[in-house]
Write a structure and sequence with these properties.
By secondary structure, the chain is mainly α. The chain is built from 11 helices and 3 strands. It has one domain: Rhopdopsin 7-helix transmembrane proteins (Up-down Bundle), CATH 1.20.1070.10. Its main location: membrane.
C-alpha cells in the first residue's frame, strides 16, 4: 500500500542500498559475530521471560503479563532489523527494494511504538499496585490488561500506517539510492526524497510527540504519585522493596525514551546520520537486551522461577 504510490513516482524500479559499517573484512567478521551474539542473547533472554511467565502460576499477574508482552514485542522488534543487517554485513548484496524498505519501516515503527506504549501501561500498573493496593485486583483485571495492550497495538498501527504511507508518496531520485543507516528508518529515508519534506517533518514531530512525549509525561505523573505513596510507607524495608520494583522499570524508560527522543525529535539541521546510526544501535540492541537482564536480576519472583526451571524442579501451571 505505502510502496505502490511511491512506485508510481519513479521513472524505473528503485532500490535502496545500505551503507556498510566498514569495508575491512576482518572488522566485518568481528561486527557480524558481535551483533549475532547480541541478537541470540536478546532472543534467549526475552524468550526465557515469556516461558517463565506462561508456565508459573505465581507469575500470572498483570505486571508479568505486561512484562511478557514487552518481551514478545522486543523479540519481533529486533527480528525486523537484525537478520537483514547481518546479511548486509556478511554478504555482498546490500540492496533492498522500495516495497521491502517500506515494509521494514512499517513493522519497525509499529513495534517500537507499541514498546513505548507498553512502558507507559506498566507505569500505570505500578501506580495502581502501590497507590491503590486494596483495589488492585478489581482495577487491573485480565480483561482490562488485554484491552489496553490491544488498544496500544491498534493505535500504533493507525499512526504507523499514516506516517509510512505519507513518506512513501515521495519521489526518490535515481534508480539506486544509498541509505546512511543499517535499516529503513524515517530520518535517513526522508533525506533521499526529491521534494520539499518540511510538511512531512512536521508530521513526524507530531507522531513523535504522541508516541514519546505523551506517554513519557504519563509515566512521570504516575511516578510522582508512586514516590509520594512510597514515602508514606513507615517500614524502611517496605520503602526499599517498592523503590526496587520501580527502579527497574524507570531504567528501561529513561534509556528507551531518551535515545528515541534524540533521534526523532531534535531538529533535522542539528542531526547527524552517523550519530543516528549509533543511537539506533542502542535502541535496537540495548533496550531489548537490558529488559530481561534488568527485570530478572532485580526481581526475586522471576529469579526464583528461573532457578526452578534451571534446577529441573518443574513448573507450576494453572488448571
Amino acid at each position: 500500500m505505502f510502496a505502490r504510490s511511491a512506485a508510481l513516482n519513479q521513472s524505473g524500479p528503485t532500490e535502496f542500498v545500505f551503507r556498510r559499517f566498514t569495508t575491512a573484512p576482518h572488522f566485518q567478521a568481528l561486527l557480524f559475530l558481535l551483533f549475532l551474539l547480541l541478537y541470540l542473547m536478546i532472543l534467549c533472554g526475552n524468550a526465557a521471560i515469556i516461558w517463565v511467565v506462561c508456565t508459573h502460576s505465581s507469575l500470572h499477574t498483570p505486571m508479568y503479563f505486561f512484562l511478557s508482552s514487552l518481551s514478545f514485542i522486543e523479540i519481533n522488534y529486533t527480528t525486523v532489523v537484525v537478520p537483514l543487517m547481518l546479511s548486509n554485513i556478511w554478504g555482498s548484496r546490500r540492496h533492498i527494494s522500495l516495497a521491502g524498505c517500506g515494509t521494514q519501516m512499517f513493522f519497525f515503527i509499529t513495534l517500537g511504538t507499541v514498546d513505548c506504549f507498553l512502558l507507559a501501561i506498566m507505569a500505570y500498573d505500578r501506580y495502581v499496585a502501590i497507590c491503590h493496593p486494596l483495589h488492585y485486583t478489581l482495577i487491573m483485571t485480565q480483561k482490562l490488561c488485554i484491552q489496553v495492550v490491544a488498544f496500544a497495538l491498534g493505535l500504533a498501527l493507525f499512526l504507523t500506517v499514516q506516517l509510512t504511507s505519507l513518506i512513501f508518496t515521495f519521489p526518490f531520485c535515481g534508480h539506486l539510492r544509498e541509505i546512511n543507516h543499517f535499516l529503513c528508518d524515517v530520518p535517513p529515508v526522508l533525506r533521499l526524497a526529491c521534494a520539499d519534506i518540511h510538511v512531512h517533518q512536521a508530521v513526524l514531530y507530531v507522531v513523535s510527540i504522541l508516541v514519546l512525549t505523551v506517554p513519557f509525561l504519563l509515566i512521570c505523573v504516575s511516578y510522582v504519585f508512586i514516590t509520594l505513596a512510597i514515602l508514606r510507607i513507615r517500614s524502611a524495608e517496605g520503602r526499599r522493596r517498592a523503590f526496587s520494583t520501580c527502579s527497574s522499570h524507570l531504567t528501561v524508560v529513561l534509556l528507551q525514551y531518551g535515545v528515541c527522543a534524540v533521534v526523532y525529535m531534535r531538529p533535522q539541521s542539528s542531526s547527524s546520520l552517523d550519530e543516528d546510526r549509533l543511537f539506533a544501535l542502542v535502541y535496537t540492541f540495548g533496550t531489548p537486551l537490558l529488559n530481561p537482564l534488568i527485570y530478572t536480576l532485580r526481581n526475586k519472583d522471576v529469579k526464583s522461577a528461573l532457578k526452578k526451571v534451571i534446577s529441573g524442579k518443574g513448573t507450576t501451571r494453572t488448571p
